[in-house]
Automatic annotation (TrEMBL):
Heterotetramer of two alpha and two beta subunits. It is an enzyme of class 6 (ligase). ATP binds at residues 46, 53-55, 109, 112, 117. Succinyl-CoA synthetase functions in the citric acid cycle (TCA), coupling the hydrolysis of succinyl-CoA to the synthesis of either ATP or GTP and thus represents the only step of substrate-level phosphorylation in the TCA. The beta subunit provides nucleotide specificity of the enzyme and binds the substrate succinate, while the binding sites for coenzyme A and phosphate are found in the alpha subunit. Its EC number is 6.2.1.5. GO terms for biological process: succinyl-CoA metabolic process; tricarboxylic acid cycle. Belongs to the succinate/malate CoA ligase beta subunit family. Binds 1 Mg(2+) ion per subunit. This is Succinate--CoA ligase [ADP-forming] subunit beta. Substrate binds at residues 274, 331-333. One of its GO terms (molecular function) is succinate-CoA ligase (GDP-forming) activity. Its cofactor is Mg(2+). It catalyses: (S)-malate + ATP + CoA = (S)-malyl-CoA + ADP + phosphate; GTP + succinate + CoA = succinyl-CoA + GDP + phosphate; succinate + ATP + CoA = succinyl-CoA + ADP + phosphate. The gene is sucC_1. The lineage of its organism: Bacteria, Pseudomonadati, Pseudomonadota, Alphaproteobacteria, Rhodobacterales.
Amino acid sequence: MNIHEYQAKALLRTYGAPVSDGRVVLKAEDAKTAAGELDGPLWVVKAQIHAGGRGKGSFKEADAGEKGGVRLAKSVEEAAEEAKKMLGRTLVTHQSGAAGKQVNRIYIEDGSDIERELYLALLVDRQTSRVSFVCSTEGGMDIEEVAAATPEKILSFSVDPATGYQAYHGRRIAFSLGLEGAQVKECVKLMGILYKAFIEKDMEQLEINPLIVMPGGKLKVLDAKVGFDSNAVYRHPDVAELRDETEEDPKELEASKYDLNYIALDGEIGCMVNGAGLAMATMDIIKLYGAEPANFLDVGGGATKEKVTEAFKIITSDPQVKGILVNIFGGIMRCDVIAEGVVAAVKEVGLKVPLVVRLEGTNVEAGKEIINTSGLDVIAADNLSDGAEKIVKAVKG
């Protein structure tokens, strides 16, 4: 689960991290009042979407030469005007995809004097199963570009969970970033704050880009991107309240209500499969036969008729779907349950695209009987390869 920058900064502020004062704006008419509550003389107006690269992004149907999703203003009036220009429009960045994301929230904060920009992140390292620090002197840039061009400028190390964060971790980061004198002590303290927040709130990513050094040597968190382990959000009601469902794919949001593992993709063939491994294999073989999957969907081993019905509805609600492949290997999951769900869903929402069904395993004959006597226009498949070939042929002709 991801949250917005202003929410991340508010959370980090409660732990004692140095962040700028700011106000969130949801309505254009409130922008001037929000900006007026800040001291200036420089205001930073930031579009709030769940995607990076906002400053380099562009709005759809933007005027020639119009600035991106992060803008500077030198007066309250200018800050309010910039906020009004961005609210309600669609911002496209290199992380948002071509469709972009609609800006429903604006964050206006005090500007900061910047002497140096640094990069810092905490994340869960899957290789070591530990929390890792990642830092670089090349703040303000895409870390992927730094890793590709100058990997020696990135320091990464994991923290032993038996000891947790120690002062020497902070000193190692400070020396790597070229900090000196009192900055080292300040860095040690800040890293401890961030590590504590990361662990206590079950975060899976905490990225600060940039972490700035101000004139006089003080450190400040200028931007913050925070993601939480969705499986642990139930332990943090305060974090759950920060969820912005307008930033999530409606189909994925609906799937989560029925405990379905669904991820929307860009292809044209919808997939309903049981088991993550089989779902991946199904997507691969669709690509092998020359088409693209429209989704990853694992209905799980204990799916009911109702869950299968909802899964089918979600697939058919995607306008990109030109055909559907149901691929079920009945182990724990029974083929007749899948068949009943598919028939119920088709009768409720209709079937406007080709449907190929491959069933194998527990109660397979009963499942095939339900499909064959349903009156549905279904293409039967003998195996996965046969099913993929038939659905691609039906879609592409």
